[in-house]
Amino acid sequence: MGLSGGQSGLLMPPLLLLICLQLGTGLERIDYVPQLASATLAGTLTQSTFTLEQPRGQFSRLNISDVDPIWLVVALSNASQNFVAPQRVEDTPVPADFLQKGYFLTLMANRALYPGSQPGNQLRLLRVGNDTGCSPTTRGCNHPLPGPGPYRVKFLVMSDRGPVAETEWSSDTRLQQAEALQTTPGLQSAGTVVIIAILSVLLAVLLMALLGLLIYTCYDTCGSTPISGPGELAFMRRYNPHHVFSRPAAGGS
To answer: pTM of this prediction?
Structure first.
């Protein structure tokens, strides 16, 4: 039995809503949680970067092609639940949007760089925030992270039709923080003052000893050296004693 025009008109809005919901949930979920690199690796966490393991063999799905870009989504922990995958590459959030949106996309790759087997020298590790030379307004810039976090990351596969697949969010990652020099009141402050006073007294005694040694050296040197100007010359008159020379005999033979 066919539907009348009024009944079909009533069914159209729910049908369109169902189609939109299906399109919105068409993003494939990959059962993979990004992991930090081994803690024994030097520099895994710094004040502006952190290092991830390479997601090897996680993108070998039929609906993912070799040319589909794979992005790393970096988000603040409290902003990860508000992340909305961009529908176009032009809408990709950049590091300059991080303070406003709380997330950005970086480290674009493809699945050929994430093989399931042991790779060569390509992308063994992913260091987030490692590029100090790129502009934060540039798409894909791996700009240093602005604060300690905590941060969460996941991988997002895009295509020319929009987002295709995504992994799970990682656990929270906190960066290292610079330790500020703090002055502890009480005994430590008093001890510091005493040490400074003792060092000041020792320095004064040392300077007095050096000054006394310098004065003694100058006095000793000046007292044992004849005082004469550099232009003064000593003249001596030649004197020949008369008895040294004998007169020749007069009228000698």
So the answer is: 0.60
